[in-house]
Specification:
single chain, Rossmann fold, 34% strand, globular, binds adenosine monophosphate
């Protein structure tokens, strides 16, 4: 399965100089979607990650996280942008290219001492995924792996992450 052929490149989006890797064309391809979820699940099983939860990062991590959690018989936890979650939260601010952003999880979303895999569509600089890992640590649990569809290798994002298995299905 050639996943790269199902991912659409949109030059100069959302701003000049950025090539946006659009996974909506992969999502709408039945075989591609199934292969994507099955591949992530298979690697997690082969590495014996045995997560109690999949933590998905808003918003495209919400697409891939739940079917992966379902396959691995894990729970799903959404990490949301600030101000969206209604109950008490853990929050981590992180740097973007311009300015800052903030990710939050409910304080009671993850039972302490759990094993958690972080999922998002893409890793670029790694700042977002690292913030997600810090949230899991704040919740008293352990990040046991990361899963991405796309990795932009030149940006070196994986160097920002803890030393656990980091899976990506397509590299640019
Ligand atoms: P980063 O924190 O730099 O690793 O950025 C990762 C987040 O930004 C992910 O949630 C991606 O969905 C999004 N993102 C960053 N760069 C791109 C890109 N070139 N194409 C699509 N999404 C991107």
């Amino acid at each position: 399965m050639n996943l790269k052929s199902l991912i659409r490149d949109i030059p100069d989006f959302p701003k000049p100089g950025i090539v946006f890797r659009d996974i909506t064309t992969l999502l709408s391809d039945a075989a591609g979607l199934r292969y994507t979820i099955d591949s992530l699940a298979r690697v997690c099983q082969e590495m014996d990650l045995a997560p109690d939860y999949i933590l998905g990062i808003e918003s495209r991590g919400f697409i891939f996280g739940p079917p992966l959690a379902y396959q691995l018989q894990a729970g799903f936890v959404p990490a949301r942008k600030s101000g969206k979650l209604p109950a008490a939260v853990h929050a981590i601010a992180y740097d973007l290219e311009y300015g800052q952003d903030c990710l939050e999880i409910h304080q009671d979303a993850i039972a302490p001492g759990s094993r958690v895999v972080v999922v998002d569509d893409l890793i670029a600089t790694g700042g977002t995924a690292r913030a997600a890992a810090e949230l899991i640590e704040l919740a008293g649990s352990e990040v046991v792996g990361f899963g991405f569809i796309v990795e932009l290798t030149e940006l070196g994002g994986r160097k920002k992450l803890p030393e656990v298995p980091i899976v990506s299905l397509v590299e640019y």
